[in-house]
Amino acid sequence: MSLTILCVDDQKAVLTTLALVLKSFGYTVLTSTSFDEALSIFKSTDVDVVLLDHALNSGPPEDGPRAFKTIKPDVPVIVHSGNVEVVNAGVPFADRVLAKPVSPEQWPDILRSVTSKG
Asked: What distance in Å separates the CA atoms of residue 28 and residue 12, rounded to the nearest whole number?
């Protein structure tokens, strides 16, 4: 069974590239460049994993994952960041925190690590 992944990043080029990589592995990918739009998609769609850019929301890093976990606590949220301090410190409510960029071949293992379907 294929995963449905919601990718959220305000940088369109990053989002497009990430979506293409994930689709190449057979995943269904939904994208959003807006935090509010992503929450709306998340509320109305069956999503297996959220992949969230840490800098997308304007508050502390944990506000993004917390918003998704409040709606659907069992859906894994992976935060990815270009900020080494955020990666090293971790992000509360995130199931994993990854440093950008992630090598394309790593995605299946990363997704398997947070789901039983990856």
From this structure: 18
Q: How far apart are CA 20 and CA 59, in angstroms?
A: 29
Give which of 17, 52, 55, 10 is closest to 34, Cα–Cα.
Answer: 10
pLDDT confidence bin for 2, thresholds 50/70/90: confident
- What is the distance between the alpha carbons of residues 80 and 8, in angstroms, rounded to a whole number? 10
Question: For residue 14, with 0-12 CB atoms within 10 Å meaning exposed, 13-18 middle and 19 or more buried, which class applies?
Answer: middle
> Can you give the length of the chain in residues?
118
As a whole number of angstroms, the distance between CA 85 and CA 71 comes to 27
Give this prediction's pTM: 0.90
